[in-house]
Amino acid sequence: MAFEVLDVRLSQLSNTNTGTLQIEDTPILIGDVGLITTAAAGTAQAGDVRVWLSGTVGVSTTGEPPDILLRVERNGTDTFGSGTLIYTETVNPAVVSNLSISVTAADFPSVTDVNANQIRYTLFISSSAASGNTLIGPATFNGIAAVGAGPF
Fold first, then answer.
1. Residue 152 counted as domain residue
2. Is residue 39 included in any domain, yes or no?
3. CA–CA distance, 37 with 136 (Å, rounded to integer)
4. Is the pTM of this model over 0.70?
5. Nearest alpha-carbon partner for 12 in 74, 68, 56
6. 3-class SS at 113?
7. How many Cβ atoms are within 10 Å of 67's Cβ, its own excluded?
8. Class of residue 151 by CB neighbours under 10 A (exposed 0-12, middle 13-18, buried 19+)
9. Structural domain range at position 28
10. Is the peptide bond before 138 cis (omega within 30 degrees of 0)?
11. pLDDT in tens, 67-104
């Protein structure tokens, strides 16, 4: 059986590098997509739903910057820690520069998640210390939900 795309969503906080949001040790929500799974909910294919997530985050660093943490949760709220953590990435910028960080994650949601008709994914950014990094953009987060048997 071929794969069928259930939903595609895009979240874009910024598409340029003109922002100046200070990255702190408290996670900040920078991406949010809700993927509709109604076509597979309640069917024998509910267990065959796969999700692909991707994003790009532009960060400016100064001095000896602390680590940058990017994390993705499933079915949480706007507050980090309210959902199920499915992806984490730690970047240690070794030089003073502007960075473009890529995020690529996959998820195999449970039948319960699929049967809820929508799965929400949230992308958070934080820093291991309260200074040194600025979110300048771009900041994008995208998701695709598909269903089908076989390798994905």
1. no
2. yes
3. 33
4. yes
5. 56
6. helix
7. 14
8. exposed
9. 4-147
10. yes
11. 899 999 999 999 999 999 999 999 887 766 788 899 99
**Residue 48 neighbours by CB under 8 Å, 6+ apart:** 40, 147, 148, 149
- The DSSP bridge pattern shows strands 4-14 and 133-147 to be antiparallel
Which residue has tokens 């940058």? 68
Q: How many domains does the chain have?
A: 1
Residue 125 lies in a domain: yes
> What's the pLDDT tens digit per position in 7-63?
999 999 877 666 678 888 899 999 999 999 999 999 999 999 999 999 999 998 876
Q: Count the neighbouring beta carbons within 10 Å of the beta carbon of residue 71.
A: 21
CATH number at residue 113: 2.60.120.760
